[in-house]
């Protein structure tokens, strides 16, 4: 006969201690409203590059222009790769020329990033940039460092990020620059309408892999060879004061080697890239295999290797529904830059079943619910997500985007 286990009752002191711990975890949102989280919109490049149906340069350019009106400050707009390898990116030079020749209206300066694989890609990037700079006598095109986060960051590590405990709708914009979602949208539209052509910042991105198998499949070379190829490229960019962002793919799982990518290998690659002159490392969960424990272990390993959280961006895919959970882990470890794609665009061609990037709409809603400031208008972003997924005939993978548009449609019907 088995003995029934009687649940142990917590003492008043234990309950008091638990409540103190919870109060540290779930503190007032007022202390984090001023904190800024930077979102890098990768939809125009990473989100579209693997689409099988051809997408016209006009649609891609219009996507960038619409995104510029949302308040996003960093947009990955295309890539200078050989058309035979990535046909969808063949017109990136046209998109860049359009942006340089007729800057998209925005409420502030926007950084445009361009992915490239080698020196030939860099030379093509220079040609477009130099032609525009020459026609403007150097005006309107700039290179600058990544934004510095404010001095009052979200709580980190054991305290965790403070959650918004107010009763306000997290679907609305944070109270700075203030008001409800509708008021914030009107403010944003007014700013865009009155904006002059802000200086454009154009940067480059490079990409590596955290496993030998993926590196050979994706770039036809080893990790060591890839680093060697990028060394002169990064030196050239540094000599011209152009920032370099470096992606490390399959950092939390590889379609060929499984989910247990060695975090120490990721740290070694990141350290090598920073030593070569990279300004930011985007650590990418390309397949969406990442979990909270593995993400935590990876970030801890990077920290132990001397890599600062401000040098890192996190890039999640939502294959197993873990992207926002992993984002929370990143926030706990001090990361303040996250990649996403409007409408959840994207996917990995080498990973069957892998879904798109973390949707920008979902990320914005999540961050705003924590009281963080992104500068991004959620409703405007949802409109862009609906527009582009409709244009390319693809389902909208943003739950927040679809819910937001349903709410706006209902509100319009009752106006």
Automatic annotation (TrEMBL):
Catalytic reactions of this protein: (3S)-3-hydroxy-3-methylglutaryl-CoA = acetoacetate + acetyl-CoA
Pfam family membership, one: HMGL-like
GO biological process, one term: ketone body biosynthetic process
Keyword terms of this UniProt record: Lyase, Metal-binding
Enzyme superclass (EC): lyase
Any one GO MF annotation of this record: hydroxymethylglutaryl-CoA lyase activity
Domain of life: Eukaryota
SUPFAM superfamilies: Aldolase
EC number(s) stated in the UniProt entry for this protein: 4.1.3.4
Region (Disordered): 137-195
Domain spans labelled Pyruvate carboxyltransferase: 37-382
Biased composition (Polar residues): 154-174
Similarity-based family: Belongs to the HMG-CoA lyase family.
Listed name of the protein: hydroxymethylglutaryl-CoA lyase
Phylogenetic classification of the source organism: Eukaryota, Fungi, Dikarya, Ascomycota, Pezizomycotina
